[in-house]
Structure formats: C-alpha cells, structure tokens
Prior knowledge:
Layout: H1 5-11, H2 17-32, E1 38-40, E2 44-46, H3 50-66, E3 75-77, H4 94-109, E4 134-135, H5 138-148, H6 159-166, E5 168-170, E6 184-189, H7 195-209, E7 214-217, H8 225-238, E8 245-246, H9 251-255, E9 266-271, H10 272-282, E10 293-301, H11 303-312, E11 316-318, E12 323-328, H12 330-338, H13 342-347, E13 351-354, E14 370-373, H14 376-386, E15 389-392, H15 395-402, E16 403-405
Parallel strand pairs: 2-3, 2-4, 6-7, 6-9, 7-8, 10-12, 10-14, 12-13, 14-15
Antiparallel strand pairs: 1-5, 11-16
Helix pairs in contact: 2-3, 2-6, 3-4, 5-8, 7-8, 7-10, 8-14
The structure holds FE3-S4 cluster.
Amino acid sequence: MILTDEEKGILDGKNGEADRLAMELLVGVGESxxxxxxxxxxxxxxxxxxxxxHQAGIDxxxxxxxNGGKCKVPTTVDPSSVDFERWEKFKIPKDYxxxxxxxxxxxxxxxxxxxxSCTPYQAxxxxxxxxxxxxxxxxxxxxxxxxIGARTNRTCFGLDISAAIIGxxxxxxxxxxxxxxxxxxxELKIDKFSDLDYHTIxxxxxxxxxxxxxVIKGIPKDVTNDQLKCLGSAAASAGAVALFHILDVTPEAxxxxxxxxxxxxxxxxxxxxxxxxxxxxxxxxxxxxxxEMVTLGCPLLSVExxxxxxxxxxxxxxxxxxxxxxxxxxxxxxxGKKLGLITPLEKAGVWFSTQTCATISPVKIWxxxxxxxxxxxxxxxxxxxxxxxxxYRDTNECIVTATEPL
Length: 406
Ligand code: F3S
C-alpha cells in the first residue's frame, strides 16, 4: 500500500501505541485485500457484544483504551449481549454481566457513542449518499450501502475500531465503483406484500446471491424504511449480501443502470409460492409443539413498528405459560413511553428489553426448546446460537400465539 508521510509516522508510533496498533491492522488487512491506499471515513459502527467477542475482544478493546486510543470519527456500537438495566430479570449470570461491562467501559473510554443499537441509521449515525464509512453489523451494512448509498464493506471486529481510531479504511471491495455493479436480477411476481414478505424476499435473495450483488425488480415504490431494513437484514444473514439494488427505489439504481450496461448473469423469478416455501424452510419446529417464547424486534424496533404492535395488542394480555419479549433501542423505549405505548403493554405482560436482542444474548440459559419470531434473521441465526427450534410467523400470529383476550 502507498502510505502518506503522516500514515507512515503513525505506523512508526508517533501518535502512540493505540494508533500504531490500529494502523498496523489497517495496513495488514489492506495489503491482504490488495488495497492501494487508505481513504477517509465519515463514521464507524463497531461490535462490542461479549457473546461473539469473548475474552479476546475484551483484551483488544482494553489494550486500545489503556494506550490512549480515541475515535477520530463519530462511532456507534452494536447491541450488547445483555440489557444493562434488566440483566437480572433476564437471568444473566453476574460474571457474564461483568465481562460485558468491561467491554462497555472500554468503548466509552475510546469515545464511542454508547448507542448499543443495530439500527444506527435510524438515529445517532446517519451517513449521506456516497460517503465512505466503516461499519460492522451485517444488517446495518446492507441498509447503509443499499438504501442510503453510503459505502462500506462488512467490516469485521478489530478492523472496525481501528478504522474509527485512525478515521480511515483500506480502499477495497464496496468502496470501489466497479464492485458495486449488480450481477443477479430477481423479478418479483407478487401481487400484495405483507411485512413478513419483505423478510422472506430478503432470505430468498440472500440464499441465492451468496456474496454477489442482487438487483430486485418489483418492490412497490412506497416500501417503508422498516420494510427495507427487514429485507436487508434477512439477505445479509441468509447470504453474505452487503449491497442490493432495487429498481426505482434505491438511490444507485435510480441514478444509473445497476448492471452497468451488461446483462445479468441470471434472472430469478420469485412468486408467492416461493415465499411460502421459504417460510416453511425457515421454520424448523414441529408444527404442533408448544411455543415457550415469542420474540419481536430483530432488527431492533422503530417507533412505527412499536405502534403497530401496540394496536394489535389492544384488548389482549400475555398468556401465563409463555414469555413475550420485545427488543428495541433505549431511545425507542423512552419515546414509546412518552407516547403511552409501553406501560399498557408491560401491564399486559410484555417484557421489553433494550440495547440487546435474543440472538446475541445468552438466551440458552432459559432452556427454551421452541421459540417464535417474525424476523427471518432471528429465525435463521438463533437456532444454531441457542440450540432450539424456531417457528417463523407474521406479527399477527406471533401476537395471537403469545396472548389471549383480556
Ligand atoms: Fe439486531 Fe440482534 Fe437482529 S443485533 S439485526 S436485533 S440479531
């Protein structure tokens, strides 16, 4: 890689050990991916959940913090593995909580905005079209690249905080125009779209695309940001999709031909039957086995999604033999409280949890064997993380399963 004099100085330790370490990592990764140079970023989004990072993650972040590392660009953090306020209610062991607290202390020392959210683009960290950013969290990466038109790879742990500390990232992958061109065309033959369909379309697109860039035709122009969030999160977890284009909807597909004048490698049709087949494939539980926990909020809920749940819950309460857990950011929870959406639901038996989610917290402790969710990402990832079966259903069915009339 060609480095500027300033970058060479940092690599030689002129700004201290944390910057030297971060620069060493950036240059090592850049050279292994054939990057020619470092480019400036406008923001970062990093991982700091103990469930995935373990002791090695604590050691690395603490080392950077102890050596004076500080984020040079606005940097947010993905959800934690615990709810910092309700950890005892959710049976989190004390030693597990202590480990997550060490990660929290380290990221705060590093100057990270303690957002603990996988949807930073809905609040604290909103990039603009064309900006280079260095984000971790596959669902946020898919959203930032596709819906906003910002530029980031699926930045891994270590590289994320190093980029934040230096304010730069090696230029490779999706930072380059030539790597943002679509290769597969998905044509939707669907008359009416439900919220669940957006998750399921994402799952189909992700499975068929792998790491290729899909272009989707047939999504209604009035698709909501939340629906696109759900589509992207499913595509990113069913495959390795970091960028998708939607004709007439996403910005790069509006500005120019997403295939750059070439023919798609393959044209794949998605019908209503394909959606039902994928729903059945995602659900791996026996149809009549008892559901022990229903979870909503993957990705973490927006206020609009919370309102929808509130309306559907009117006149209902949670059944005695089931848990109903809803995940959202602390800010959405507080706003929901101001709007009168939270207290009635809590009185009806809903457990809210903030700054974490069922997939990345140690839900295994509860010994559930069968859960239900309306999220394709949660349904795809949780069974292997927590060794349980999952039913994948729409929000209505999740609520009807978890609750009964008052
Ligand atoms: Fe977010 Fe957790 Fe789902 S981090 S995307 S709610 S798995």
